[in-house]
Amino acid sequence: MSDQQTSAPPAPASSWPRWSTRIALSLAAIGGMLIGALFVLDTPLGHRLMADQIAAYRAASGLRVRVGRIEGSLFTNLILREVNFSDPQGRFLTVPETALDWRPFAWTRGVLDIRALTLRRATLWRAPALKIIDPKAPLLPDFDVRLDRLRIESMTVAQGVAGARRRVDLAARAQIRAGRALIDLNGKLGGRDRIALKLDSEPARNKFDLNLRYDAPKDGLLAALTGVRRDVRARIAGAGLFSDWHGWGWASQDGAPLAGFLLTNKAGAYRLTGQVLPGNLVPSTADAAMGDRLSLDYAGVLDRARINGRLIAVGAAFQMTGEGALDLAANRAENIKLNAVLTDPRRLLASAQLTGVSLIGTLDGRFANLSMPHVLRIDRLNSGAIAAQGISTRGTARWDGQRLTLPLAAIVQRLRTGNPQLDPRLDGAKLTGTVLLDGDKISSDALVLAARGL
């Protein structure tokens, strides 16, 4: 029997070329649709759709923006016509023409790339009233920013916003990229208003330069926007390294010195030394305690808006130390330990003689709802025929942003009134009740004095 030679079945044709072709065609179709969508978006119809989307968006702060018309290309150079900015109270700013030269596709790399932004012939009708959304938000964005040129040309501030009608011109540039913040701003805000800032901050290169000029006359735009109706001037400057920086600053109000200080940073440890001359900015009681100047010395660390360290304050009538943290973003005190001594009681109570007045307490809570557990001691008090020794009280005071509520639970070791029949019963007397301090007014609904046999 002869051998039979069998042939193997033919190998099936590979399916990969067919699938690769289909994938390529699908990708090409998707790309074509995207290009077509972008092309449609950059037409008058697309511009109108974009303007409608902008108008429909309402920020959590209450800000709304309406654009009358978009001209040019959305992807390079465009002009926005009749832009209106509104807050919950209505329109506050109109800009007839806004020119924008930008590169939107840079956003795919996490970069906001604006080559030029110019606002022309804007009108500020009033100061905006926007809501504060997140006081803990970072000071700098978490993406890169390139702003080569920002110009505000011939902006009109309407009459009544800051007195007479005025013209504002401002030029600025900024870069926040790869850990570097570079800001250069120069603004002439009409009249004598002026704000200028130069900042070059780059931790990686251990570089930090700062120069700020702020001039705000009481009848100017800055005073109207901030609500401070005084002539205020300020200068802050410094140069050096992040690990070894030296700066200074001063401020004046109505032509009189307001504050002056020196600031240093040694490898993250900050030191501020200076004086504040409050003038008539504080109530008369606080003014009497401070005198004509308040000396300050602070040493600690600063992390964003959180200050943690030790402060020494010395006024004409007191010395105080405070140790703890302030969260300025959350408007909160965090267990600040206070220790204060009254060095010149006559400035506060001219009709009485006080010696050995001291206060130990702790500040905690939001600025508008502060609590202060404390112990207050007075060694001696003489007023007319009354002489007291060893006075002490403890409790938790409350500050609501306007008034101080102080509970009294005072014990007097020895109290003399000049009455031989009454005085033996007054040793160890207790005074309880609540005292309310509202500005310069002190009041109490009920104070109870308890003594032996009375």
Short description:
With 454 residues, the chain is mainly β. 11% of the residues lie in helices and 55% in strands. The protein has a 25-stranded mixed sheet that branches.
List keywords for this structure.
mainly beta, 454 residues, 11% helix
Write up this protein.
The chain is mainly β and 454 residues long. Helices cover 11% and strands 55% of the residues. It has four helices and 25 strands. 12% of the residues are buried.
Which percent band covers the strand fraction? Answer: over 45%
Query: Nearest-angstrom radius of gyration?
Result: 34 Å
Global mean pLDDT: 79
Distance between the termini: 141 Å
What is the percent of helical residues?
Answer: 10-25%
What's the total count of β strands?
Answer: 25
State the low-pLDDT regions, or none.
Answer: 1-8, 11-26, 30-37
The protein's oligomeric status is single chain
User: What global shape is seen?
Assistant: elongated
Report on the biggest sheet.
25 strands, mixed
Secondary structure tally, helices: 4
